Predict the structure.
Amino acid sequence: NKRVIFKDYVTGYPKEEDMILTSATVPSKVPQGSTAVLLKNLYLSCDPYMRGRMSKPINHSYTDAFTPGSVIIGYGVSKVVDSGHPDFSPGDLVWGITGWEEYTLVTAPKGLTKIKYTDVPLSYYTGILGMPGLTAYVGFHEICSPKKGETVYVSAASGAVGQLVGQFAKLMGCYVVGSAGTKEKVGLLKTKFGFDDAFNYKEEEDLDAALKRCFPDGIDIYFENVGGKMLDAVLLNMRVHGRIAVCGLISQYNLTQREGIYNMTAIVTKRIKMQGFIEPDHKNLYPQFLEAVIQYIRDGKVVYVEDIAEGIEKAPSALIGLFTGRNVGKQVVLLGCD
Ligand code: NDP
């Protein structure tokens, strides 16, 4: 049972050496009389929030820190090999919280959901039909209160969450612009995901000018994935009564000294509503979200791009690649097929 161990708390950018590949034996059955579930992991998900779990514990985080010396924990797609739990049987496919290892013994399987639809790639349950998908869905529909014809800006727009926000906004009849960090990603936004316009933020000397070029009449909705300088420039370009959904601030996660925001006055003068949100608070919407999005996929109304690394050995580099923009689309690690 190959596994990835979290070495020790991280400061600054995470490195591959912060995670160690080892192996350990796993039982072939769940302990008799227990309600545990034994999983064969098929896909592991790399998600930016995992960086927060690599830092020393702080009291205002909504996730616990990883334990040094323990296996890394994250979302994945797995097959049940053995079960003492009444809700799960051998052969079931599930998605949810598992270990970064080939087999995981889950003692309390409350973080697992049985997979209902298998006519789509199973890896989708780490992305479009999993946590990032629900994040995009509730963040856009519930937090942004979008209306047809409004202007929408999405940062980190080609990623796991961003590519969906842009497509949901197009389905609502909004005008959508995204930014991303390479020419290839900008191309995807315009040709694959149907954004009305897109730009490479790394090539823009003046973000304020880039936003003015794309939104001459201002931005109604900003879906915030990056923070820092981008948020500051966006504040200057919001329209009166605009909404900002703060999903994440990836540009800040690895900085020891976080960047300041200088244009907060705009919140008052333009009466902007800015709201942070986290996906776990909205799990109750999962059934509604799943039915809506599976239909979009089947009808070809929404597409999804994934970046699949093969083998557990690649998991550490895949995870750290999120923070340099190496991933093109949702970053997944394939361990084995069903
Ligand atoms: P992505 O698939 O978008 O991967 C991360 C991307 O972020 C990279 O590919 C890179 O793209 C971009 N990025 C990395 N560093 C920087 C930087 N310094 N400045 C600007 N962009 C950067 O990740 P997700 O879609 O999974 O996550 C997007 C955001 O949503 C993150 O902030 C994440 O924390 C947040 N999130 C929040 C949730 C919630 O419940 N609130 C749940 C899930 C995600 P590029 O090449 O374009 O720079």
User: Anything to note?
Assistant: The chain is about 25% helix and 25% strand. Residues 256 and 337 are 40 Å apart (CA to CA). The pocket of NDP is lined by residues 47-49, 132, 135, 156, 158-162, 180-182, 185, 225-226, 247-251, 277-279, 322-323, 325, 327, 330 (CB under 6 Å).
